[in-house]
Amino acid sequence: MALQLELATPTRLVVSEEVDEVVAPGIEGYFGVWPGHAAFLTTLGAGELSSRRGQQVRYLAVAGGFAEVRNDKVVILADAAEQPEEIDRERAERARQRAEQRLSGRSQDAVDFARAAAALARALARLQVSSRAAG
């Protein structure tokens, strides 16, 4: 028995495949889904989404959106999603540094704490997923 995973952003279908397990970043923490899981709808946070089929695991960086689980199907509508090979590691590192400067108060910009924290979470997720492609 498998799950059907569909992950899309506003501009493209990123993944459509059968998997054994999905682990995704919910707004209140990570959640896992296996076949036969109870139906639910949740808001996504920024982080690393993983899907497993047998021994093979796929990782993606996602940020924002919604996840719906029903009838052995996981539908994820993400604001942004990137596969490891799509991530510009240097750009993600610069984004991480900017967000950390804003949060520490070393930036000249007026700090919008929520936006800076979200930018930091996105950058960290992108760096984590991109490191999986290198390793």
Task: Give an overview of the whole structure.
The protein has two helices and eight strands; from the N terminus they run E-E-E-E-E-E-E-E-H-H. The chain has two domains: 82 residues, ATP Synthase, domain 1 (Sandwich); 48 residues, Single alpha-helices involved in coiled-coils or other helix-helix interfaces, CATH 1.20.5. Helix 1 runs antiparallel to helix 2. Strands 1, 2, 3, 4, 5, 6, 7 and 8 form an eight-stranded mixed sheet that branches. The longest helix has 22 residues. The chain is of the alpha+beta class. The chain is globular.
Note the main attributes of this structure.
single chain; about 140 residues; alpha+beta; ATP Synthase, domain 1; Single alpha-helices involved in coiled-coils or other helix-helix interfaces; 2 domains; 8-stranded mixed β-sheet; 2 helices
Give the fraction of residues assigned to helices. Answer: 25-40%
How many H/I helical runs? Answer: 2
> What is the general shape?
globular
Task: Assign the CATH superfamily of the largest domain.
Answer: F0F1 ATP synthase delta/epsilon subunit, N-terminal
* β-strand amount: 35-45%
Please give the CATH architecture of the largest domain.
Answer: Sandwich
Q: Give, in order, the helices and strands.
A: EEEEEEEEHH
Unreliable stretches (pLDDT < 50, length at least 5) are: none
Q: Within the CATH hierarchy, at the fold level, what is the topology of the largest domain?
A: ATP Synthase, domain 1
The major β-sheet equals: 8 strands, mixed
Q: What is the highest CATH level, the class of the largest domain?
A: Mainly Beta
Structural class by sheet pairing and helices: alpha+beta
Give the strand tally. Answer: 8
- Number of structural domains: 2
Write down the Rg. 16 Å
Mean pLDDT: 90
